[in-house]
Amino acid sequence: MKIVLVEPLGIRPELLEQYAGEIRALGHKLVSYSARPENTAELCRRVKDADAAILANLPFPAEAVNAGEKLRYLDIAFTGVDHVALEACKARGIAVSNASGYSDVAVAELAFGLMLALSRRILPCDSAARREGTKEGLTGTELFGKTLGVVGTGKIGTAVIRIALAFGMKVVAHSRTEKQELEKLGVKFLPLEALMAKSDIVSIHVPQNSQTLGLISREQLERMKPTAMLVNTARGPIVDNTALAQLLCSGRIAAAGIDVFETEPPIPADHPLLAAPNTILTPHVAFATTEALERRAAIVFDNLKSWLGGTVKNQVC
Questions:
Q1: Is residue 162 annotated as a catalytic residue, yes or no?
Q2: What is the rounded average pLDDT for all residues in the chain?
Q3: Among 196, 208, 269, 296, which one is least packed by beta carbons within 10 Å?
């Protein structure tokens, strides 16, 4: 069979070659590309005669699905699969797997890093130090004793909660399922409206789907304390970023740390959050650590070898 890695996985060349060798040893061909396709037409060309394709967060529209005349398997090197035309895959009988769990630690740590950077005003402090400035006007706040509201208590949300408890924070949560193991740690589950109003920091950790699209609406944002901050390392469309920017500009919300947007970076120069004060914006990098990318590759190639052997692991479609 022909397997095509349509975009880089961000791992060391020697590690990629190790995995490629394992696939070749099974009698299959692996073609890997060192750069993303420049357009959909190029993507379609890459998968045209592939039996299986590996990709990360590269958009994979129905046009690409249907261009893969022999395509039977998509191995997604990512947790979310909202960038893949799943309905087109179902119509074609193409199995789809993901790499859930590879970046749980990485995303949780960045979420907390954004909280720390915002609360201690690290970026303005750095700027002041580089301009021969002082600490004047740069007094921060502590996380200890503050209430963290976690929206979504899957693996990443749970990891964030455990870090928060180690920092001496109080934690409230909102989730489809109230978990007893978290309640035993002192976590209190609340309706979303109550969580937004009670929290000093709100951190988003739900997947993007029809139920969560626009979940953190203007109405929900307006329930937040004027001193509160919002952190989003989940998916951009979960939050009304236009409303968030307006509320930041008016001082109605104190700060925000945002890693995800309506589209994949680069974000447009007129994106409303670029003009909002007290924000830290990162270019969808929460998942990207050396350790996480290597874990991801291990999961992806294990998925592939399992599929080649007749079993679909981590199947989402």
A1: no
A2: 97
A3: 269
Q: Where are the domains of the chain?
A: 2-102+289-308, 104-281
Whether 205 is a known active-site residue: answer no
Q: What is the pLDDT of residue 10?
A: 96
Annotated catalytic residue within 22, 72, 120, 264: 264
pLDDT in tens, 24-70: 999 999 999 999 999 999 999 999 999 999 999 999 999 999 999 99
Coil, helix or strand at residue 84: strand
Residue closest to 106 by CA, chosen among 163, 148, 146 = 163
Cα separation, 49 vs 46, in Å, equals 8
Kindly list the strands in the beta sheet with 95-97, ordered across the sheet, starting from the edge strand earlier in the chain.
29-32, 2-5, 52-55, 73-76, 95-97
Mean pLDDT, residues 215-239: 98
Residue from 83, 174, 284, 296 carrying the catalytic annotation: 284
Contacts of range 265-271, beta carbons closer than 8 Å, 24 or more positions apart? 271/241
Q: In what order do the strands lie in the sheet with 170-174?
A: 188-189, 170-174, 147-151, 201-204, 229-232, 255-258, 279-281
Amino acid code (one letter) for 203:
S
> What top-level class would CATH report for the domain 2-102+289-308?
alpha beta
150 by DSSP, 3-state: which? strand
Catalytic residue among 235, 271, 295, 296, which? 235
pLDDT band at 184 (very low <50, low <70, confident <90, very high): very high
pTM (2 decimals)?
Answer: 0.93
Q: Are 94 and 73 within 8 A, CB to CB?
A: yes
**Amino acid type, 55:** L
174 included as an active-site residue: no
Angle of helix 104-119 versus helix 290-308 axis, rounded to 10: 160
pLDDT for res 246: 98
